[in-house]
Amino acid sequence: MKAFPLVALLLIASPTVLSAQGAVAPAAEETQELLPNQKAFLNLPEEQRKEFIKHLGEANRVFQQKRIFEALAELEKAEKIFKDSPEIYNLRGSCYVEMRAFDKAMDCFKEALALTSDNPSVKFNIGEVYFVTKKWAEALGIFEQVIKELPEENKALGRLVEFKILLCKNQLGEKEEVLKLAAKYDDMDDSPYYYYAQAAIAYDEDKLVEAEQWLGRARRVFRNPATIAPWQDTMVEYGYIKSFYGNDPSTVDE
Questions:
Q1: Per-residue pLDDT averaged across 179-188, rounded?
Q2: Whose CA is closest to 21, among 74, 65, 81?
Q3: Cα–Cα distance for residue pair 18/36, rounded to 1 Å
Q4: Which own/partner pairs from 108-117 qualify as long-range (CB within 8 Å, at least 24 positions apart)?
Q5: How far is Cα 79 from Cα 102, in angstroms, rounded to an integer?
Q6: Are 91 and 20 in contact (CB under 8 A)?
Q7: Mean of pLDDT values over 216-240
Q8: Residue 112 pLDDT more than 60?
Q9: The model's pTM
Q10: Torsion over CA: 154, 160, 161, 166 (sign)
Q11: What pLDDT score does 168 carry?
Q12: Residue of 173, 167, 171 lying closest to 182 (CA atoms)
């Protein structure tokens, strides 16, 4: 089943933070104001914190392997220890996206957002659900928030968000703005944006061969499949490219 380009968030956990890939990194500065749920987590006994992190890490591990029901089971175990974790809701929402249960996914992402104080990564996931269910105006509104809030160093995600903004505006009939956005970067940019934007314009003009040529150029320039995957998935979600699975995400029963 095709994976949508969802984004992980971080949870402060004692002196370390655990990412949605299970990697441990240095904690934020001590001077940073903690949210109430973060303070509550730090007040748990050390053994409970360790057990929580173990289950959350395992949930992330099996999710990456597309073992969705096992991931959900691990999240339930983590939730019994500490239920106010944005990581739990964010990953659970990602599981529901894989299952095409988009209403449930949206509920989870909104719960995660309520616990993370306007985290742009969670907002991206909300925008992505709107995007795959073809609610273009709602998706555009969220992505325009995300692009303002993303850290400058997160260039890869930023470019992808800009491309999704271009596609949303295209669906909403803002053709002049679409052409401006398509010309925003050139082939010297270190993201696939230029090639996919040109492909989108070609698809819209029914120049299918030209569109495929642009996509082929992108694959030759960016040889790492992991770099290309979210852009290719976006073209499938939008409808330019037929899904391998043959399903329109917006029409799947929930």
A1: 96
A2: 65
A3: 18
A4: 111/86, 112/9, 112/86, 112/87, 112/88, 113/86, 115/35, 115/37, 115/84, 115/85, 115/86, 115/89, 116/9, 116/35, 116/86, 117/35
A5: 21
A6: yes
A7: 95
A8: yes
A9: 0.82
A10: positive
A11: 98
A12: 167
